[in-house]
Write a structure and sequence with these properties.
- With 407 residues, the protein is of the alpha/beta class.
- The protein is 31% helix and 22% strand.
- The strands form five sheets. Strands 1, 2, 3, 8, 9, 10, 11 and 19 form an eight-stranded mixed beta sheet that branches. Strands 13, 14, 15, 16 and 17 form a five-stranded antiparallel beta sheet that branches.
- Strand 9 and strand 10 form a beta hairpin.
- The model has no long low-confidence stretch (mean pLDDT 95).
- Bound molecules: flavin-adenine dinucleotide.
- The site of flavin-adenine dinucleotide has 45 residues, from helix 1, helix 5, strand 9, helix 7 and helix 12.
Length: 407
């Protein structure tokens, strides 16, 4: 792998990928496998992204009682029939192959009883969530990064995309760097720059689970270049943001806590919703419970309800929630002995750039994958389907972008 500043002024590549989360890494690795000369540009370091923060897991229909068709039905139902059925079909039918590919790249999913340890996540009718302990996103990005770094692609770190414009042989990208403005030419471009919930939360004076690089300017750049978007107003609240202690505020308590038995209870200790319902339904139920005066206040006066984590078995917690346990215990609370305080927190951009099955946007030669793309989840994403989207549509985008650039 090469690193800037080995890149000359106005360097030229076949495929330029923007963003080093799971989708960008997957696209870059796949474009290179398809024979393209690849550059991967990212705002800060290769490691900095939301993908690496993902804990819970990734969906794929491996259960005996499950199938990709049932997975697709769950996605469509959770989206309230707003997802694009063609994209959902690709997502769910290629899920098993995506898991196999991640394993080839070195990801070791947690196993039990001769198969994968599967959990049921919110909105799912079957146990379908594969995990790597509770650091699934870290494991996936590390494996993909290792794969990228062992190839011949060029990493353009500390390159913030500022403009994208058509060029006679493809696209010209302008970056802000520490050394000033840098321009790169590419036959095709893959936008994999994630969502905007960090910036959105700042503007709303709310907490967010997101990495500070989730600021959304690449979507605006694509729109300015003429790309179409959908459902951009549909932002997702994670039902279980940490509310107390202060060190856990903005932390996303993995949905797998609820998959392994934790339930939401109000001030009177009563369950007030199906804790494994779709995310928008569960978040709304919490907002409503607090509005009815049935919530509790954190010691610093924030609204909250209880997540009764004492119902999780010690074995499940040790295998599937060790990071969460460490974080809370470090803050002086043992979730296996006492309930924890939680409140919804801004988490995910459901909508994004319109793409087709090959992840091409409405601009020829510009592809989009991961959180920046819209349609796969409609207006309400299920947990575990974003990492899957990155590893299904990232490779599709990389391969199609390589073919386009080499045509
Ligand atoms: C705390 C947390 C827990 C989660 N848990 C799960 C889970 O268990 N399962 C699941 O499926 N999903 C989960 N998600 C969602 C999922 O992780 C993300 O939606 C997904 O990984 C996004 O991947 P991405 O590649 O699209 O974007 P990201 O991983 O966000 O990467 C975007 C990249 O683009 C770069 N970038 C941004 N702007 C620019 C610019 N102008 N120029 C150059 N580069 C730029 C960033 O630096 C970054 O490298 C979680 C998210 C969070 C925040």
């Amino acid at each position: 792998m090469g690193y800037y500043p080995a890149v000359p002024e106005l360097a030229e590549f076949d495929v330029l990928v923007i963003g080093s989360g799971a989708s960008g890494l997957a696209a870059a690795v796949s474009a290179e496998s398809a024979g393209a000369r690849v550059a991967l540009a990212t705002k800060t370091t290769l490691q900095a992204c939301n993908s690496a923060k993902a804990q819970g897991g990734i969906q794929a229909a491996f259960g005996q009682d499950d199938s990709s068709e049932i997975h697709a039905q769950d996605v469509l139902a959770s989206s309230h029939d707003t997802a694009d059925p063609k994209l959902v079909e690709v997502l769910t039918s290629e899920a098993q192959a995506a898991i196999n590919w991640l394993e080839e790249c070195g990801v070791e999913f947690t196993r039990a009883n001769g198969g994968y340890r599967l959990a049921r996540c919110g909105g799912a009718s079957r146990k379908r969530l594969l995990q790597v302990g509770d650091r699934t996103g870290h494991a996936i990005t590390k494996a993909l990064r290792d794969r990228f770094e062992s190839g011949s692609g060029t990493a353009l770190t500390h390159h913030t995309l500022a403009e994208l414009s058509p060029d006679e042989n493809g696209w010209q990208a302008t970056f802000a760097t520490r050394e000033g403005e840098v321009r790169v030419l590419a036959g095709s471009v893959v936008l994999a720059a994630g969502g905007r919930c960090y910036r959105e939360a700042q503007e709303r004076h709310e907490l967010s689970t997101n990495h500070a690089n989730a600021t959304g300017e690449v979507t605006r750049i694509a729109l300015a270049a003429g790309a179409e978007a959908r459902d951009l107003d549909a932002l997702q609240y994670h039902p279980n943001g940490g509310a107390w202690p202060t060190s856990m505020q903005g932390y996303s308590i993995p949905e797998t806590t609820r998959a392994y038995g934790a339930v939401l209870v109000n001030a009177d200790g009563e369950e007030f919703t199906d804790s494994l319902g779709p995310r928008d339904t569960v978040s709304q139920a919490i907002f409503d419970e607090v509005a009815k005066g049935q919530g509790v206040l954190t010691p610093d006066g924030r609204p909250a309800v209880w997540l009764d984590t004492t119902r999780i078995s010690e074995e499940d917690a040790e295998i599937s929630l060790p990071y969460m346990l460490r974080r809370y215990r470090g803050g002086g609370i043992d979730p296996l002995n006492e309930k924890i305080l939680t409140y919804p927190v801004l988490h995910y951009q459901n909508g994004g750039l319109v793409i087709d099955e090959h992840a091409e946007t409405t601009l020829e030669g510009v592809f989009a994958c991961g959180e920046i793309a819209g349609g796969t989840h409609g207006r309400n994403r299920m947990m575990g389907n974003s990492l899957l989207e990155c590893t299904v549509f990232g490779p599709r985008a990389g391969k199609a972008a390589a073919e386009k650039a080499q045509a």
